Amino acid sequence: MASGRTNPAWKHCVYVDGKTRNLICKYCEKVLIRGVYKLKHHLAGTSKDVGAYMSVLKEVKKSMLDIVVTLQQNLLRKSMSREEKIALFFYNNVIPFNVANSEEFKRMLELVGRHGPRLKPPSYHELRVKYLKQRNEKTNLIMEEHKLFWKKTGYQGEIQLKKIFKMMDDIVEEVGEENIIQVVIDNAANYRAVGELLIQKRKNFEKKISLHHNTIANCKKITTYIYSRTGLISLLHKYSQGKYLIRPTNTRFATSYLTLGFLNENKLSLIRTFTSSKWQSSQFVKTRDGRLVENLILDKGFSKNILNCLRGVLPLIKVLRMVDSNEKPVMGFIN
């Protein structure tokens, strides 16, 4: 064996005569082509490009596995930084950027970092059932403390709900139910309850709410599908001249409707993308999700729904941007 070799793997092999890149495992005498690379995987038991040696000593296997894992981590760091991976998770799942300011998000990353590699994330079922149930039980315990307080002071929630509902209903009467395109209210629980009461009293509101909800949900399907596939992003940019379909803002409300606007602006680019020969010959068109997204983009009714949503909401977004701006006083614009 040549001198000057510092890699720990070299002590577990010998050279094949006349073949400087071929090695023989000291333990099983297996001939390994391509030198020390395959030896590491052979002794680590990964079965990558080479059969695993099942009778290897535990300390040897652990040593080789640590080397293999370290090399893979270094390769990942070179190809994409940790920060880029986190950013990609936000982009592909259309997560609002303000989530990055959440203390829970920061604490989650700290805990993951402390655990180290090979952390098994919670499954879909665990998130939906196990941990949700645990959180619900903890919330109920907190509520019990409030209920004891309500017995002494009285519960004002129902009275407040009735007052808010009456105020909203009076506005509907004043404006005229037939003239209302959409009712936009705060996302707090009491206002959501008021929305349910309005729907119970005025059945036409449910159709208007469903139109916006379903249209936004379908737009999310389109953007999520496209931006989770690099090949589709490149194909879309070819027809859209590099324009994006998503522009996250500080609020989910604004992000959703601005995305509707970008989909409407890039309608022709999307149609050209999903009717192109490259799309029709791709592997995506054969999948259920691919066909669903294609049908949505080519559906004239869906395009009409986007326009109807935008007509009612864009003026409101313009006003909200004025109110939320810190650059100049806004009272002169709103009267």
TrEMBL record:
- Answer yes or no on keyword Cytoplasm: no
- Which stretches are annotated as coiled coil? none
Q: Which residues form the BED-type domain?
A: 4-60
- Which keywords does UniProt give here? Metal-binding, Zinc, Zinc-finger
GO MF term (any one): DNA binding
Q: Does the keyword Cell wall biogenesis/degradation apply?
A: no
* Name this polypeptide is given: BED-type domain-containing protein
Species assigned in the record: Phaseolus vulgaris
